[in-house]
Amino acid sequence: MTKIIQLKDRQHLAQGNSRLVFRHPENSDYLIKVMRPDKIDERFGSGAKWYKRLRRLGKYLSYHREIEEFLAVHTATDQAPPFLQTIIGFTETDLGLGLIILGAFQENGDLAPSLGHLLKKHRYDKKMEAALEACFSEILASPVIISDLNVGNFVYLEEHQHFIMIDGLGNANPLGFKAFSKRLNRRAKLRRFARFRERIERYKKHYQHPT
Ligand SMILES: Nc1ncnc2c1ncn2[C@@H]1O[C@H](COP(=O)(O)OP(=O)(O)O)[C@@H](O)[C@H]1O
Ligand SMILES: [Mg+2]
């Protein structure tokens, strides 16, 4: 029988709008992501729209998208691209199915900071901006489809001066054109990058970055 990893009584390291992120109790290089128990009902259960309730994948749809993108980039290059987090696999936990991924950590062992954190703490500088642009170029050169560019979905590895996109991948519309046309996918990505740059500028104003 597979072992069920106990996470409920542990403290998570981070959380997003839909998931909790724990350190893997048996391998400190790994993280386990599970769906946030407080959001499942409202999003996928009795609180959700009828068509969402009918979808076969329901609350695990986001895993499916993420894995599809992981496979798509490997199909293209047969190696893990530097801008993507490495997916290790699945595990059962007392909080439902967990996605095991390689964690991005700082040298002191803490999680690598998100772009949002860097902006908030006035740490986002020219060097990081160049690193983010390099990350955009890597995304553009890859067949990956992106759905959600937000400042919580990029984490920064100071050591390598490198951003990793840890979430927000995949096609929100499974019948969408992006999966079938490289050109249209590229155009859609360029549009999203442009909007995202504007969003970052708004954050800088909001956090009163010196100009
Ligand atoms: N591989 C990773 N390495 C380091 N931190 C991560 C990693 N994946 C997620 N995180 C942290 O956890 C937060 C939430 O993860 P995320 O996958 O974005 O969850 P959600 O699906 O809820 O948005 C991120 O904003 C980031 O700070
Ligand atoms: Mg996220």
Can you describe this structure?
The protein has 211 residues and is of the alpha+beta class. The chain has one domain. Helix content is 36%, strand content 17%. It contains 6 helices and 7 strands, in the order βββαααββααββα. The protein has helices at residues 37-44, 50-54, 61-77, 115-120, 126-141, 182-206; strands at residues 14-15, 19-23, 30-35, 87-93, 96-102, 154-157, 162-165. The strands form 2 sheets. Strands 1-2-3-5-4 form a 5-stranded antiparallel beta sheet. A two-stranded antiparallel ribbon has the order 6-7. Helix 5 (126-141) runs antiparallel to helix 6 (182-206). The protein starts with 13 loop residues before the first strand and ends in a 5-residue tail after the last helix. The model has no long low-confidence stretch (mean pLDDT 94). Magnesium ion is lined by residues 16, 152-153, 167.
Tally of strands: 7
Tell me the count of domains.
1
**Radius of gyration from CA coordinates:** 18 Å
- The portion of residues assigned to helices is 25-40%
Average the pLDDT over all residues and give the rounded result.
94
Instruction: Bin the strand percentage.
Output: 15-25%
Report the sheet with the most strands, covering strand number, pairing sense and barrel closure: 5 strands, antiparallel
What structural class is derived from the secondary structure elements?
Answer: alpha+beta
What distance lies between the first and last C-alpha atoms, to the nearest angstrom?
59 Å
Low-confidence stretches: none
Cα shape: globular
DSSP helical segment count: 6
Series of secondary-structure elements, N-terminal to C-terminal: EEEHHHEEHHEEH
Q: Can you list the ligands bound to this structure?
A: adenosine-5'-diphosphate, magnesium ion
Cross-sheet strand order for the largest sheet = 1-2-3-5-4
